[in-house]
Design brief:
The protein is mostly helical and 50 residues long. 60% of the residues lie in helices and 0% in strands. It has one domain (8-42). The longest helix is centred in the N-terminal third of the chain and has 17 residues, at 8-24. The chain is globular, with a radius of gyration of 12 Å.
Length: 50
Amino acid sequence: MHTIQLTDEELRILYSALHAYLDDFGHDEVDVLRQAKAVLAKLPRPPESE
């Protein structure tokens, strides 16, 4: 297991990037979609932008 520390801005970028990554995959990459969704579920929701 790995632990990383992210600032609020880094978390926002990672969260957005992972959502964009998911949006680019089609139905043929079910295993990748499942893994990406699992990672996304582990992330805390980023704080709202001011």
